[in-house]
User: Which sequence fits this backbone?
């Protein structure tokens, strides 16, 4: 395909500096002060043609660039204006130029999103005496011809992010077709998620199919890498599984345990074990686990139409009691079922099989009680008594004659007091009235898994916005009807999405200002009172700046209490600025060696990290305003708090990098530290983080200190799984980052915005002279991710010890939509703030902390100089980017539509 340039586009050529040429001897008149006298002004180019040859969609979206250097000669004094006309559609409409002395080097690159083919055309460089460019100067226009060759790149259709839907019990699938890159003849597909949910099949020369296994109800995501030639791309597959008719259930077996008797050299009577497969997977298998050392092969299992037949073979067993487990299981995520089994060989009390019980939302009060037959293997009946070592197991019938039942119950205060979501074991000992008969013991294994809400996030939400709440807890799998088993007080027609047994997402219409309970119900009664959702009205803040002093470690915005906290490392204080409706009042609490801080998901505790060797993680009562009572503290070994607000996920775990080079979480209920498992080449040193306000998606920067052969890819981790992954885009380290409330947008280093799936939304590039005149320091993502706010200081202010001349600017970036044909995100304008939050001495002290109000209308900035509250103006009144000298670069155009920019030139004839 040959595409000749017949489209003429006028583009802005941005010049960063003024050209100034000193007199070098000789004569020659100068131009008039109004810009005349340009008769001898000429420009020469170091080349008149450029060429590009690249593969479409290059890695990272980085396109090649060619330079053309123009040299000014002759005589000119005053203002002239420069612009360009691009003939054709293959050249980027932003052509930066860097000026040095009398030379301007123009950086020309292809347009983004070009289809494979060959494109030709010209770039005409213009110099004009007027802003409308009606009067050309010197020997312009100067033509630079171009040829752009775009070779086919790896491309996957229908796209790099697809959805597959299926009803549980059925498979789902999606067929992909490939455009192979130039020179490639084959490809390979790898599932990076290391799960058995998907399989790849039907590979042909240019297509393949991803099949999603039948799975339980839920929403799942996996990432695939497609390699072809020297290119690769990533696929994100979202799998949505809905409930089958009649609902779903996991693998079920009956009976729950097996007790056998036999004489030496004989076998027991067989017992039928009925198996009901999981609704999404009909396959299952049985294995035997022997629990007594040295005894093997005495459990016999044969298949039947409905499950298995099981018996005990005592041919090679001596008198005594033996135990084992028959485990019936399927492929993940089918949950295995364990059937405890016991056999008593010879005369004596029969050892009952162990009992395994799960107490969940479907358990009734009556089902908290049970019984165990107490028998003798042979001979006349004898008396028996029973005891237990667990206070939570009450024996309601603890004596009798063999042939009767031992009765027990869990319906007592001791069992109610046990922590939910854990396993417990009680040992029961049965003793015969005959002293010559050996006592027998068996165990009752209980999993307490009553449905319970342990945290919600974000626990503070606005009355003007729909509710989206991540509910964390225990035992949600047992809730066959989430709407009846999980309630959000006051919500009208909430929509429930179960993620897994410990996480449910609730969405509902906006709610009135108030407090609401979110809790789970069980047939035996509630577990706790649940968690409190706070719905508040938007708060309008006025501009203000308040001296902080010291060195700021991190900043935390508390919308429930209208407060902003600082970990002031320089002053060893926790600073609390509270809004009173007119201004902000400051209170301080001494915290030696304070480093940074966070807040628990329900807002009950401030979490303060210190650099002390002991008690280095403290939980303070957040309901207090002037001083903070310590609720608990933990000694976390080798903790490195880092530079960001402590990332606390919605499951109540705080994450830190440790030493040497480790990374893990602290359970804020117990203080237990769990190290993250993953790639042994990951290196956690000086790690950084970003976390959405809902506490679900954590972005992790591995390493900020060192270099190595292994790239330090940015990791991501979801609270639902606690499994860390390297990002599929191959994006490496970041130093500052901010995520939207739900983590679906994240900005790294104030330079690039990605989606949750690491699809590049776009780069943050200040156009024109702003690219070098303003230095980006930090950015903050709006709660909905549609806007990114970047604070920048004027380049002339860095290293300055005098009073500042230029005010800091907040640039407003549109990060709402990915435009495949435009790498740079739109810069909507900027607004100024009157005060510097940080110092201006480069480089360590000038990085501010940033946060944003829930309604996205106010920015909070903090540093070692000031705490600044900056309302965000309406976008219609943002200041446009200015050209050198203060003129608007976008305001001037001629009848030809040529945008121009001023170039202040004082050129003497050489």
Assistant:
């Amino acid at each position: 395909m040959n595409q000749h340039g017949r489209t003429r586009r006028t583009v802005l050529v941005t010049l960063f500096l003024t050209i100034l040429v000193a007199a070098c001897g000789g004569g020659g008149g100068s131009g008039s002060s109004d810009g005349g006298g340009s008769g001898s002004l000429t420009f020469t180019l170091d080349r008149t043609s450029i060429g590009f040859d690249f593969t479409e969609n290059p890695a990272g979206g980085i396109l090649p660039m060619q330079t053309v250097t123009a040299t000014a000669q002759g005589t000119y004094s005053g203002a002239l204006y420069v612009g360009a006309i691009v003939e054709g559609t293959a050249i980027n409409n932003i052509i930066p130029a860097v000026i040095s002395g009398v030379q301007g080097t123009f950086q020309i690159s292809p347009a983004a999103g070009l289809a494979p083919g060959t494109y030709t055309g010209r770039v005409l460089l213009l110099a004009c005496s007027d802003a409308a460019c009606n009067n050309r100067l010197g020997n312009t226009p100067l033509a630079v011809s171009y040829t752009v060759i775009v070779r086919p790149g790896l491309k996957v259709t229908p796209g790099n992010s697809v959805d597959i839907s299926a009803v549980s019990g059925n498979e789902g699938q999606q067929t992909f077709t490939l455009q192979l890159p130039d020179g490639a003849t084959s490809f390979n597909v790898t599932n990076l998620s290391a799960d058995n949910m998907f399989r790849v099949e039907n590979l042909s020369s240019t297509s393949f199919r991803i099949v999603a296994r039948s799975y339980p109800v839920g929403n799942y995501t996996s990432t695939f890498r497609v390699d072809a030639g020297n290119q690769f791309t990533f696929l994100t597959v979202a799998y949505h599984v809905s409930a089958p008719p009649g609902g779903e259930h996991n693998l079920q077996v009956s009976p729950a345990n097996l007790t056998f008797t036999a004489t030496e050299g004989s076998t027991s009577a067989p017992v039928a074990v009925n198996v009901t497969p999981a609704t999404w997977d009909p396959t299952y298998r049985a294995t035997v686990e022997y629990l007594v050392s040295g005894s093997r092969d005495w459990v016999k299992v044969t298949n039947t139409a409905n499950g298995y037949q099981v018996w005990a073979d005592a041919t090679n067993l001596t008198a005594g009691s033996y135990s084992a487990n028959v485990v019936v299981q399927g492929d993940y995520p089918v949950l295995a079922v364990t059937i405890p089994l016991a056999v008593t060989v010879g005369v004596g009390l029969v050892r009952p099989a162990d009992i395994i019980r799960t107490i969940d939302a479907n358990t009734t009060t009556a089902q908290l009680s049970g019984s165990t037959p107490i028998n003798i293997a042979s001979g006349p009946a004898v008396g028996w008594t029973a005891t237990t070592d667990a206070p939570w197991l009450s024996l309601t019938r603890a004596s009798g004659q063999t042939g009767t039942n031992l009765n027990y119950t869990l319906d007592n205060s001791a069992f109610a007091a046990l922590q939910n979501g854990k396993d417990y074991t009680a040992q029961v000992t049965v003793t015969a009235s005959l002293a010559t008969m050996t006592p027998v013991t068996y165990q009752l294994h209980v999993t307490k898994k009553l449905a319970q809400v342990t945290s919600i996030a974000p626990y503070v939400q606005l009355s003007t916005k729909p509710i989206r709440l991540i509910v964390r807890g225990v035992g949600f799998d047992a809730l066959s009807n989430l709407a009846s088993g999980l309630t959000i007080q006051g919500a009208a027609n909430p929509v429930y999405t179960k993620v897994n047994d410990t996480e449910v997402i609730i969405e509902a219409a906006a709610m009135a200002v108030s407090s609401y309970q979110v809790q789970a119900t069980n047939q035996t009664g509630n577990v706790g009172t649940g968690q409190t959702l706070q719905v508040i009205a938007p708060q309008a803040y006025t501009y203000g700046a308040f001296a902080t002093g010291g060195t700021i470690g991190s900043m935390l915005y508390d919308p429930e209490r209208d407060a902003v906290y600082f970990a002031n490392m320089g002053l060893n204080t926790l600073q609390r600025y509270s809004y009173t409706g007119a201004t902000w009042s400051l209170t301080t609490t001494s915290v030696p060696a304070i480093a940074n801080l966070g807040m628990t998901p329900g807002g009950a505790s401030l979490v303060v990290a210190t650099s002390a060797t002991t008690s280095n993680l403290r939980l303070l009562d957040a309901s207090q305003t002037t001083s903070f009572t310590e609720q608990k503290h933990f000694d976390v070994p080798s903790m490195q708090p880092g530079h960001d607000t402590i990332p606390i996920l919605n499951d109540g775990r705080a994450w830190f990098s440790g030493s040497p080079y480790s990374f893990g979480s602290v359970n804020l209920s117990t203080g237990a530290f769990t190290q993250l498992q993953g790639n042994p080449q990951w290196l956690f040193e000086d790690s950084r983080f970003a976390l959405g306000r809902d506490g679900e998606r954590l972005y992790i920067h591995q390493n900020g200190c060192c270099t190595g052969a292994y790239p330090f890819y940015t990791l991501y981790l979801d609270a639902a799984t606690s499994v860390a992954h390297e990002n599929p885009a191959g994006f490496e380290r970041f130093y500052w980052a901010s995520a939207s409330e739900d983590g679906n947008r994240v900005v790294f280093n104030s330079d690039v915005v990605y989606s949750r799936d690491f699809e590049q939304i776009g780069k943050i590039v200040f156009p024109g002279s702003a690219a070098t005149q303003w230095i980006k320091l930090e950015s903050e993502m709006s709660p909905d991710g549609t806007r990114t706010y970047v604070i920048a200081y004027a380049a002339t202010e860095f290293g300055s010890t005098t009073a500042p001349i230029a005010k800091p600017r907040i640039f407003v970036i549109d990060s709402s939509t990915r435009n495949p044909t435009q790498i740079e995100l739109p810069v909507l304008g900027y607004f100024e703030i009157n005060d510097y939050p940080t110092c201006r001495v480069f480089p360590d002290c000038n990085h501010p902390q940033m946060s944003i109000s829930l309604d996205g209308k106010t920015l909070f900035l903090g540093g070692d100089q000031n705490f600044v509250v900056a309302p965000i103006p309406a976008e219609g009144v943002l200041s446009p980017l200015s050209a050198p000298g203060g003129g608007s670069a976008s305001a001037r155009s001629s009848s030809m539509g040529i945008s121009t920019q001023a170039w202040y030139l004082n050129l003497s004839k050489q």
